[in-house]
Amino acid sequence: MSIERKHTISEIVDRYFEEMEHEFEHWGRTLTDKPSWNQKNCTIEPLHDMKITPTEVIVTVDLPLTFENKVQVKPLDESTLEISAKMKRKVRFSELGITHCEGEFQKLRCYSRVPVPVQMNKMKMKFKKGILEVHLPRKRKSSIKQR
Amino acid sequence: MSETRIIEKKQIPSGALMLFGFPDAGLVGVIAASHLIDELGLEEVAYLDSRLLPPIVVLHEGVPHSPIRIFGNDKILLAASETPISADIIYQVMDGLIEWGQNKKVKMMISLSGIPIEDRQDAKELKVFAAGSSPEMLKMLQDKGVEGLMEGYMVGPQAIMLMRCSQIGLPAATLLAQCFLNYPDPEAAAEILKGLAKVTGIKVDVAKLLEKGEEIRLKARDVMKRTQEEMVKMKKGQEYDIPVYVS
Asked: Chain A to chain B, count of Cβ pairs less than 8 Å apart?
């Protein structure tokens, strides 16, 4: 697993469009469904979940057919994580029952937006049985001084 | 016309065991049902037709099928759904299937499902629990080596099946394997099939199921996602609640 922070210009442009896509996905889900796979990028969106406790936010992602050392977690900003993982093998669309398009998937990728302030630089990760757990400590507000 | 009807495609045996594998926590029932169909070579013998269902057909080899079908042989009938059943119509669907099974004089109904646990990925072994439609059924399940689920809430198709069978006096059980709530769980499906073997003697090899586990998890994402939406509507989270026993 690795945490990446440096990006090329093309990555920044790609990320911009991905963020736009993510926003559309977030707001558009109520209007229409979209596939959980992207033919152009050859990616599949994995299932992911989030648990918010008083001290931390735990993001979990189901990453079947991946190795731990191929998992990447990138903080895109103060509240968004991009989680991706190259798959052990390419999976043809037809293997997943998608027979009206041609192509193959190589990567799992999803975005997770954390709704409370967290310390991205203190994230910790765990990968077990194909489930990635990302632990993000919550930011503590300064306490009120007692007189 | 009744709200749901079962269309029979083949001769239905009398006195069979009727199983249910519907989308729920970890898709345990659906994955287990799919493996049973493959391993036992069960054929589609009937399907559910209802205008209450959304306008969905499942295409297999270019031919339309109902998303809720009954597979079987001369001893087993297995009702399985390839799409989550909406909370709004679940009573009508389950009532239709149970009434049909009762008319076919099934000897027992068993629902295969999951019970979610926190930190599932850290669990070394997954337990299987059972609830019975009567004290006699529960005793039989416990005698066969399955731990009883003595207190708590059960939410979903398996809850309706158990309650209806209890009301009409048809022996029934729900088997529940510890599982993920929101992620497909082939390991839990394998455990539920081992539990089924203890109770009924129907043994299937689960090695292939475990071998294909990662592929199953990848393929089942979309059904799991839609099932999550229905579980929220059904208040599935109530299964985590501590019950207040009212005597």
From this structure: 41
Query: A131 and chain B: CB distance < 8 Å anywhere?
Result: yes
pLDDT at B1 over 50: no
Query: Which residue is associated with the tokens 């009567």?
Result: B134
- Report the distance separating Cα A44 and Cα B107, nearest Å: 44
User: How far is Cα of residue B230 from the mean position of the Cα atoms in its chain?
Assistant: 15
> Which residues, in sequence order, are CB contacts of B65 under 8 Å at separation 6+?
B44, B47, B57, B58, B59
The alpha carbon of residue A129 is apart from the nearest alpha carbon of chain B, in Å, by: 6
Q: Are residues A44 and B225, on separate chains, in Cβ contact within 8 Å?
A: no
Question: ipTM score here?
Answer: 0.87
Residue A6 has pLDDT above 70, yes or no: no
For residue range B83-94, what is the model confidence (pLDDT) as tens digits? 999 988 999 999
Instruction: Give every CB contact of residue B91 below 8 A, 6+ residues apart in sequence.
Output: B160
CA A85 – CA B187 distance, rounded (Å):
22
A-proximal residues of B, 36-55, CB under 8 Å: none
Which tens digits make up the pLDDT trace of B87-130?
Answer: 889 999 999 999 999 999 999 999 999 999 988 999 999 999 99
pTM of the predicted structure, to 2 decimals: 0.87
Between CA A87 and CA A122 the distance in angstroms is 27
**Is B220's Cβ below 8 Å from some Cβ in A?**
no
B62-73 tens-digit pLDDT: 899 999 999 999
Q: What is the DSSP letter of B158?
A: H
Contacting residues for A147 by C-beta, under 8 A, at least 6 apart: none
Q: Are A121 and A81 in contact (CB under 8 A)?
A: no
Tell me the residue type at B4.
Answer: T
Q: Is A81 on the interface with B (CB under 8 A)?
A: no
Tokens of A94: 């037809």
